[in-house]
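Here's my example:
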Amino acid sequence: MNLKRILSGISLSAMLIAGTAQAETLEEALTYTYVANPEILAQRAYLRSVQEKITQSQSGYKPTIAGEASYGYSYARTKTSPIFQENESKPVTFGVTAIQPIFSGFNTSASVKAAKSLFEAESANLKNTEQSALMNAVIAYTDVIRALAVLKLNQNNETVLQRQLEYTQDRFRVGELTKTDVAQAEARHAGAVAAKISAQGDLKIAYSAYRKVIGKLPDKIFEPEVPAAKLPQTLDDALEIALKNNPAVQAAEKQAQSAQSSIEAAESGHYPTLELQAAYLNMRAGAHGTADLGFGPVETGRAREEDTTVKLVLDVPFYSAGVTSSKVRETKYTAGQARININTVKRSVIRTTTQAWENYQSILASLTSLEEQVRASALALEGVRYEEQAGERTILDVLNAEQELLDARVSVVTAKKNLIDASYQLISAMGMMTPSDLGLDVARYRKAAAESNELPDQDQDETQNTNERQEETSV
């Protein structure tokens, strides 16, 4: 269905009053939103911080090496009759210690699994944030489309009522109409002027929301089409896709996996740990002093000491005052909550998907009636005008018919806007509001945004998407 035909030739695409960017389609607006929206950028930065937890947990497999060095001054004087001892030195100590974990009671492996599951959960949350931002971009885009169309309709209505007022005044001058007819025409014209001013304000508000969500204003925007090819055929198909792809469900499942791995990490406190330790210590002291051992003074000289140690250390926990058992119970309760939360999220997704499906179907079904209302109202207005000229109708009847036609056209514009919003809300509920599913050219816009310094330095350096980061983590 072509909204331009519904509006009897009134175009929904118009030049913006103020703008510096190029013409923009809905797909281009969505692509730019995906690349430069600050909410998405912030969530991506947070995801990178979560990714570091994997590296931190994997450190349990690797050795740690620490060096030690010191330099100081020491003076000691001891007198125990008949022995007298005095010593002054400048000790220099350096050494190195290496520890290689061999068995950590399964703590490291469990921590790595928990960190990876947490990263996957936050990746799903990032996807959820991206879908929310893209959905807001769709609404902002269609709000501008609707505001432009409503403004155009009100401008045309003001012109029509201005002609009607002039026509009424001319007939009043020749005595065909009364002052009441003129007053009615003046009142409707004044109302049309007020409605036009209100529509201009609504358009400015829509522009403001557009710039907030998408980040820039275009010179021109184009009427979008309903993405019918991306929509499911039945509600059952929509629910099946949603339960599989919706990022909220994916995040809940991965959080449950992370919580389960946390149980294993807590249980590791019951197991012994084994590690290999190696150390080397070298101590030197440039010392001088005297010591009286009872048979005469003795000069003391330079001291040097070297120690090398290699050993296996087995640490067996016998009793931890109940702390380990308490932590295990705590993590089990948390994991149980996470598993229950999966069902809660799935029910919410089912409700949201069903609501989006029914909303889309009801708006789609009502469009035919609204189109018929516009056609009938246009015919009725034409007939009322002829009847008024023949003396069978009044000026008020004509004004009412014109208002009914305007209201019908605005209803169609609103329904078309709501239909597009509902279609994308259904796509979002199914978890398919992604660049790949929408066919967005992210690479080109990411490069353009980086060149214009509209991305933070961190995002200019790292332009991989979530899937690429997941592949890097698995490697």
Observations:
- The chain has one domain: 3-63+109-270+322-474.
